[in-house]
Amino acid sequence: MIKMVEYLSNLSIRVPAIDQYPYNIPVLKNGVKIEFDKAITFVIGENGSGKSTILEAIAEKCGYNLSGGNKNHLYEHHRTEATMYNFTTLGWIKKPYDGFFLRAESFYDFAKYIDDMAEESPSILGGYGDKSLHKQSHGESFLSLFNNKFDRGFFILDEPEAALSPIRQLSLINVLNQLRKNGKVQFIIATHSPILLCMPDVNILEIKDGQISNINYTESEHYTMTKDFLNNPELFLRHL
Fold first, then answer.
1. 3 in any annotated domain
2. Does residue 226 lie within any of the structural domains?
3. Most buried of 60, 67, 160, 195 (most Cβ within 10 A)?
4. What is the CATH number of the domain that holds 184?
5. pLDDT, tens digit (0-9, with 9 covering 90-100), for 77-87
6. Strand 88-92 and strand 99-103: pairing?
């Protein structure tokens, strides 16, 4: 058992009865209560189940830039009328000094922001492998961020596998495993990757039918469907 850093211990989201997205997502209407007791927690579920909304609610409450970044990354991000801030409660054992919210879908904007900052202060690239994120492949820039910026703090990752090949996803598992050994990090990660989910000593929270439950890797649809498909792809393709 790997000792967990004492950051976030629990999360509660209770939204009002509003028939408007995202408040009408079933898992939010039913109320969200989560206890965290591992350094790494994966959140899984179908598209539209509420994974990203929950992660964004946590990030908003932490004060992280909602397009990606930390409290000090002050570039413009998308805004909607909906906010979870007043309906989200985070139970901290100890508030983290640093952290980051990674959104795969808006990472391009974050990389541009860092490049723009580096034009005035080139030393800023030292935190990203001394190389512009835009001069690396998408996957390389992701791993550069993980390797150089995620040494201590509370990190929220929304589908980090989006830019990573299967081999690079294994590299990410190695990075995450090394980071948690220092006892100074906590990760909450939304993912669709059956590769990342096989990581040992993690919690896997599945959103299904408007409920959140803690499951084992082999109980996840990611595991069973991937296994069945690879064992007999012809059978699946005939049904498509």
1. no
2. yes
3. 160
4. 3.40.50.300
5. 555 557 899 99
6. unpaired
